[in-house]
Amino acid sequence: MHDTSASIEITALPAFSDNYLWLIHRGQYALVVDPGDAEVVEQALQARQLQLDGILLTHHHADHVGGAAALQQHWQCTVYAPESDHPAYQALQATRVKQGDRLTFKHFGALSCDVLALPGHTLDHIAYYLNRQYLFSGDVLFGAGCGRLFEGTPSQMYASLQHIAALPADTLIYPAHEYTAHNIAFAQTIDADNADLQQRARNTAHLRAQNLPTLPTTLALELATNPFLRCEALSQQAAFQHWSAIDVFTELRARRNHF
Ligand SMILES: [Zn+2]
After folding, report:
1. What was the pLDDT predicted at 6?
2. DSSP 155-220
């Protein structure tokens, strides 16, 4: 058996104040997810002597797509983007992808990449599920949190999170922002007795004190500590008695906006 994942490396490229642009590389070739800043990606490629083979866009926000046109022009590589007519994609000759599509890449052997539709943060938001092991979740799922509802409804976002929750528990998740510490502080206002959350707070503080990423995370850890994936359990709390899980989700998302 040839294990295609063994030779893949995934590197966080910090950008702006709290974004991670994820660089996926194998041999001398690389893919990048959500390159908001082309220069950050160019420097990383040059430092590692990599050639860019593809760009994966999760949604149309500028901090995710801002560097895509310059990178595409330089590398003449394929840009994958959601099927929507948002103007952010119009300058790009993008290959539009949707739920159920399976992508392969010229220089990445048998590596597969499944597209998941995860609306809520934006209506067009998609995620890339690489080799059925690594999920690039954009601004849908964060460490101990979830994205704001800019375009979608709470029901759409809740369904998107449930879609992620149904993946294998050992899935490694690569969100686009370092929000974990703040999200944990919020989670502790709701789920204070959760021992896994307390442990995660300690681990996260330790990592951030050294300026290290708290990501990737695992689905198992999120299921145990992320309040937006624990709405069913939280609905059993005295504070939320007789609430449905979706009502708990809606309330938590609203509270998080002001936290
Ligand atoms: Zn966004």
Report:
1. 56
2. HHHHHHHHHHHTS-TT-EEEESB--HHHHHHHHHTT-TT-HHHHHHHHHHHHHHHTT----SEEHH
